[in-house]
Amino acid sequence: MxxxxxxxxxxxxxxxxxxxxxxxxxxxxxxxxxxxxDHVNNKNKVVVMFIIGVILAVALSVxxxxxxxxxxxxxxAGIFYVSKHRGFTHTLLGVSVLSFLFTLIVxxxxxxxxxxxxxxxxxxxxxxxxxxxxxxxxxxxxxxxYLLWYVLLVGIYLxxxxxxxGNIGSSNVFLMFFIGAISHIILDLWTPAGxxxxxxxxxxxxxxxxxxxxxxxxxICSLHYITVNGSLLTNFTSIFKYA
Length: 243
Ligand SMILES: [Zn+2]
Hints:
Blueprint: H1 4-15, H2 25-31, H3 43-60, H4 68-82, H5 92-120, H6 126-141, H7 147-160, H8 170-189, H9 208-229
Helix pairs in contact: 1-2, 1-8, 2-8, 3-4, 4-5, 5-6, 5-8, 6-7, 8-9
The structure holds zinc ion.
The site of zinc ion has 5 residues, from helix 8.
Transmembrane segments: 12-34, 46-62, 68-84, 91-110, 122-142, 147-168, 174-199, 211-228
Keywords: Membrane, Transmembrane, Transmembrane helix
Protein name: Hydrolase
């Protein structure tokens, strides 16, 4: 089994060609750890995630009739809890669905925060609000061993290069979560156990040849994306762009 650190590094490397700015790499870092939330060692974290989701849903319902992010936190915790290791969360369908749901969690807080700002009449800096959301999501996913480093890194980045939460692009957030999670799948395909990648369509187990095919697809997509959209690898002025 590849360890947390290897997955985190792979997530960042695979996302680099697609990242519109440096900040988005934090989403890839998180995405790279999403599939292993099904591991038995993470069951306590998943229970905490569920409890926080319920508390947020109750608390946020004061300001928001439908606290979307909180409801999705509960749903995602449920998916992790019932998934057996290297099952649904390690399939193409699973990483697509979970990347989408985590994007909704991140983006779903924006309307609530806007309402809260209007009601409370407090001009919180946007970076602080984004920091809180990033730490909340990181708390669910990041290994406890590296959580402090994650908090420090996100905090230092947002302090030095403030990001307007409202300018974060949802499609880019999804892309980063997805590529991070796909990098996890590629690393796990490299292990002898392999993965049943196409559940529920097929229960066939895939190994290194599928990992190589996914890497080939990644190379082609990377070159195409960089050519069409540019990248922080080729255009350094985009490093601190967010939309
Ligand atoms: Zn895994």
